[in-house]
């Protein structure tokens, strides 16, 4: 155990002040730790197997205690909540351990790198009577929620087609480790970029079948799994979403993520950062400017949402990502990989 720091104040879910364990202090773990520190009123505990990374993040957030073994932290600290911020393939074992130790859990996306593991995590949450929320932070994005409102209102009729683009090479550049470059640790681009799969499920419902092409476009000794994928998902409504994911192209700040949705009576497009344009077939055009003041904002909103859910409240204006909904996304990612590997159209159960 690394020496402790700071306060001894206890946290309580009922008043939203919690004793929180962050497992994994890479880039996203550090950002979550800083978000919680900015929120104030909570007690932080860190667990990270690399001592140099642990000490670096501890110097920024002054946690009450630090551990190089998350299992020891769970045994000793009696935390109210745990945030799982480790490489994707570690999520299942660490989440189940945290739930079994009595923690509500916010697990970074994807929930796991297999549907079997994802379902085991859901069972652990149910068995221990704890919340399992998955960090699909796009669910608090104001453009995502504006699109949900448009679909629910029916003002443009029903959605009939969609095109989705996600291209962010900075994902690899900013990372403190190389886990995304290996199937065994990252699961591949379709698991790692599953934000898009998740918000499409909010918009369009359950996926019915899919076809997929994946490839490794930029080869090096470090790269062992796909860095590009092009695929089509057909939803139970009949709508088809044509999608492109990659780690290699850059469209400039804020342009790496884009969706265009064709409705019966109009069209909507947005990059989720700068603006949303809404065309009505009658000729009206509306420009919606989202409230996304920066990376902190979405992390802060997601953390507030987790605190509310852990306290037994609903998500308010947001639909939070449950373990069950996230397990469906894991099953979809698996189906996409089966489609890519077999060259066939794959149906989902």
Quick take:
Strand 1, helix 1 (27-39) and strand 2 form a beta-alpha-beta unit. This protein has helices at residues 27-39, 51-61, 70-77, 91-100, 115-128, 142-153, 170-174, 183-186, 189-192, 195-204, 295-310, 323-342, and strands spanning 19-23, 43-47, 65-67, 81-84, 104-108, 132-135, 159-167, 207-215, 228-235, 240-246, 257-263, 266-270, 276-280, 285-288, 346-347. The protein contains 12 helices and 15 strands.
Structure, explained:
- The structure is a single chain.
- The protein is α/β, with parallel strands linked by helices and 349 residues long.
- The chain is 36% helix and 23% strand.
- The protein has helices spanning 27-39, 51-61, 70-77, 91-100, 115-128, 142-153, 170-174, 183-186, 189-192, 195-204, 295-310, 323-342, and strands at 19-23, 43-47, 65-67, 81-84, 104-108, 132-135, 159-167, 207-215, 228-235, 240-246, 257-263, 266-270, 276-280, 285-288, 346-347.
- The strands form two sheets. It has a nine-stranded mixed β-sheet with strand order 14-13-12-11-7-10-9-8-15. The chain has a six-stranded parallel β-sheet with strand order 3-2-1-4-5-6, with helices on both faces.
- Helix 1 (27-39) crosses helix 11 (295-310) and helix 5 runs antiparallel to helix 12 (323-342).
- The longest helix is centred in the C-terminal third of the chain and has 20 residues, at 323-342.
The share of residues in helices is: 25-40%
* Percent strand: 15-25%
Query: What Rg, in angstroms, do the CA atoms define?
Result: 20 Å
CA-based shape: globular
